[in-house]
Predict the 3D structure of the following.
Amino acid sequence: MPRVLLILIVALLAGPLGGAELTLRIEPRWQNGALVVPSGPLLTSEGQTVRVTRLAAIVSEIRLQRRTGGTVRLEGQFGAIDAETGRLDIALQGVPDGDYVGLELQLGVPSEINHGDPGRWPAGHALNPLVNGLHWSWQGGYVFLALEGRWQEPVGEERGFLYHLGTDARRMTVRFDADFRVESATLITLAVDVARVLRGQRLAADDESESTHSGEGDDLAPRLAKATERAWFWLGAEATNPRVIAAGDGPVARRHQKLGTLLAFTVPAGFPQPALPADNLLTREGVALGETLFYDVRLSGTGTQSCASCHEPERAFSDVVALSRGVRGKLGTRNAMPLFNLAWASAYAWDGGQPRIRDQVFAAMRNPLEMDAKEEEVVGALGNDAAMTETFAAVFGEPGVSLERIGLALEQYLLTLVSADARFDRAMRGEVALTEEEKRGFELFLTEYDPARRQYGADCFHCHGGALFTDFGFKNNGLTASAGDGGRAEASGLSTDRGKFKTPSLRNVAVTGPYMHDGRIATLEAVVAHYDHGVERSASLDANLAKHPAGGMALSSEDQRALVAFLRTLTEVRWEH
């Protein structure tokens, strides 16, 4: 049954647990120096050069050993760290004041949680897949530790490595013998030395050393798990200031709580819980206004183009052309992304430059190559429409049209565009059956390309796994660089992000072509061919693609057709051609 997130309940705030606030801060290291991820070239104990592009883990089962005897178990408290995003602090509550002589933690989660429904965890929780990015979806369970990167011999091409440690057998226990005191708010700093994790690990092409997903009979996973347990160091404990948590109940949130008919947001079965904007609660009236504005050409500078001009509803709100055209026929620089399941994203546009849907609305309206709108002209045009001003007053509780309110209304409407009922979903529910070819395509989709372990899949799940069919990450997927388009680097300012673009969802992929950030690939068959044998190597190429042979995966023509057949099952009936 679908889970319903009641919009009427803004937040459920647990009462204080009592005791002190304890923060564990994890510092990645490489030998004696700090490790910044993504890293520059690093020399391993085997004389090879590596670049670390991902270090992420889940922490649980935290225990503190009292000086006077006995153990404090912090049951039900979890943490997720990710070095690339800088999320390295784990906040713990309810720790008794006192003197301690040891600390223990696990990398991983207990078995019942590992095999449970990841959709149970609320927005923002460490075990919510949107937060940690470490759930294996249909394969089941969490990745406890992800270590990824690139490697190279002194002479030779650069390749990728992916180490994913998971399954119940791979839970790792880390113990520290150290004297420390917890009183009020305390910070404990720990270090994990990635050089120690890789010590003695010599990488070679196609010999089982470049990847592990902790499968049965894989002896690399236990070796890496043991090395990980021994790679941790205690750096110190100190008193610190308690965190200040803002109430976050602004005027917009108060207005929406009083006005209109609140709508329930239904989270489809298998989907994680999203973090909906607390200052823009969904109302029936607000969504209706947003839908009206979506088709209103007065939002453009020429009064000729609406949002729907580049986001056609019959194409899952995507565009039919490679580079979308704005007002006055101006050619844009990127393909218009489809608009569905936006509630689960944490950043918008191909480069992730906009943190909220409303910000993306404003960016499109102001962009001279898109809608090229002037705020005063748009507000004036809508404000001179008596029916429109009456609608705005009914939705927002007082007269007045503003750009902020236009963004809020459009955000409400766009949040309701949920896609979760493709033929694939119906097959998963047992309502219809996939063909044998489609089943083969699904098998390829979920299977690693790892010839050393006799696996010859298509490796799609690394970036497109899970019910949303995207990890919302930013990846270089082996395209020839676009002239003048730095991708993610244009938003982050990091040179290491050049050539990276947002992973699009594969839902509705049969109708959202042309494909890629600039629409350069016209068909699904050509997309599959690109990943099979057309990947161009570069410094920022995703590690999973970089571990494939230079000549590609060499899937048979039958397997490529099967993969396309499966991808077509991800399109909803309402958008099927």
User: Anything to note?
Assistant: The two ends are 29 Å apart (CA to CA).
